[in-house]
Design goal:
Layout (H helix, E strand, L loop, with lengths): L2 E3 L8 E3 L3 E3 L2 E8 L2 E2 L1 E3 L3 E3 L3 H6 L5 E6 L5 H25 L5 H7 E2 L12 E5 L2 E2 L2 E2 L2 E4 L15 E13 L4 E13 L17 H17 L1 H45 L1
Parallel strand pairs: 1-6, 9-15, 13-15
Antiparallel strand pairs: 2-4, 3-4, 4-5, 4-14, 6-14, 7-8, 7-14, 8-10, 11-12, 14-15
């Protein structure tokens, strides 16, 4: 499964199948390059009534607006609307068994976007799938952790993955059936930054460099160490000789003292 981005869409890869009856409606499945058509939105801001509207049984939709005045995503849906009308007109005889004028088809089609005023942010409204009052799509935070629906609030930054299922034909009109498959929520506060409590830097590189520098310094001072070793040996020899000399001196001194005593007795 491939998730498409609006900046890379190729309308030639969008395929439409002949409508099939499903209950009281006819449904023309859409795929992108023979795969389910999943489209990722840019980062947007959840508008008024996000969680409240989703939980409402009357209008299970999520309203969002672009982060700035950027019409690229809006234009992608305008182009998709035009393609839906064009393909319906081109295939109307095969699909419905009769030729329907283009203006009739165009008037029957309910577009995905509302008109945007100049210098205003585009606003989008997408359906949230629900079963028995429970939201069916997954909601994640920026750490890829599944979170509770109540964290989706007005003003929250979100990215959605949309599933464009197909064209749904009713008695008086038809539209492109789009719903939200996944929601990614960018939370503020503690969840926005991950702050470590203790010193966590990896110092292996610095420690390795210090060891290498120390080894290099030791290699440069090898001659000095050798000289110290030589001096140490010389010092030991001198100390030994000094001890022997002092011993000999003491022996001579004792001999002299004995001789002086004997001489004194003879006098």
């Amino acid at each position: 499964m491939t998730i498409q981005r609006h900046t890379e869409l190729d309308i030639k890869r969008i395929n439409y199948r002949k409508p099939e009856k499903q209950g009281l409606v006819y449904y023309s499945a859409i795929d992108y390059n023979n795969e389910p058509f999943f489209l990722q939105t840019p980062k947007m801001i959840c508008k008024k009534g996000g969680i409240e509207i989703i939980e409402s049984r009357n209008n299970n939709t999520l309203n969002m607006e672009t982060m700035n005045i950027d019409y690229s995503f809006y234009d992608a849906f305008v182009n998709l609307d035009e393609l839906n009308v064009k393909k319906t007109f081109e295939n109307n005889k095969e699909w419905f068994g009769k030729e329907i004028p283009l203006d009739v088809i165009d008037n029957m089609y309910k577009r995905l976007n509302k008109p945007v005023k100049k210098d205003s942010k585009p606003i989008f409204e997408f359906k949230v799938p629900m079963t028995k009052g429970k939201v069916q799509c997954q909601i994640y935070d920026q750490k890829r952790t599944c979170i509770d629906l109540n964290q989706l609030k007005e003003g929250t930054e979100v990215v959605c993955i949309l599933h464009l299922r197909g064209l749904k034909f009713l008695k008086q009109h038809y539209y492109c059936d789009v719903y939200i498959s996944q929601i990614k929520v960018f939370l503020d506060g503690d969840n926005k930054f991950s702050i470590l409590d203790s010193y966590s830097f990896n110092d292996i590189e610095e420690e390795t460099n210090e060891i290498k520098q120390l080894e290099q310094d030791l290699m440069l001072d090898e001659d000095f160490l050798n000289s110290l070793q030589t001096n140490k040996i010389d010092k030991q020899n001198v100390e030994t000789e000094l001890v022997n000399s002092r011993k000999k001196l003491k022996e001579q001194t004792d001999i002299v003292e004995n001789l002086e005593k004997k001489l004194s007795q003879l006098n």
